[in-house]
Amino acid sequence: MRKLFKHMTTLLSLVVLAFVGGSIFYGTQTVHELLGDNKKLKAAITSLTHEDQIGFAKVVRQEEREGQLYTTLRFVETARGDLLTTVLEREYEIEGDVAHFDTLIVTFSDQVVMDGKARSLYLWRRIYGENMRPAEGYPIATPGTHPARYADLLRELKQSDQQLFWDAIWDLANHPEALRDHGIKAIYGNVVYKRLRPGLIYVFKIGTDGHIYPETVLDM
What we know:
The protein has 220 residues and is of the alpha+beta class. The chain has one domain (31-218). The protein is 20% helix and 45% strand. The protein has a 5-stranded antiparallel β-sheet, with no helix packed on it. The radius of gyration is 20 Å and the shape is elongated.
């Protein structure tokens, strides 16, 4: 019984996340150690380039049911550096015709980026309609998972370090006081909304200030 209890305690200590003294721990590894000492991770973050287009949305159909308008939209996330390659494609139905698109933005500090130039990650979170609470929104990405858009980013790292990195990115958003210690300038949300109409494509782009905005073009 004692051996079983000891084994369970050890296992629990490896999988439970604890926030202690400004550091987030996963087992014996901390985010600070990973971001501060891992040269492969620094090289991966430095390899991030300025991104312009990160996805688009279009109306599949709009229809009234019992006097209420409903919109079905297709959301597409494109690959980094390749606007013709799709890494995620899903359809969502919302009540009404106004859709909100929620994104998590992560900006790294100079101590993590080798060349001193700003680098950021952009993670799609959820989509929700005008008559929905954000918490009821449809998820695009699941916290802690490896976003398909950045599947190649950490390929030089061990699998355990990759998982640690993505877990930490989502968790650090809830601990803003720890960001400076972990080489991250900011983690913040960016929500844009648009009234959707058939025959148009809403191309999501990123400005030089890191904010996302939709550009409307005709669906040829």
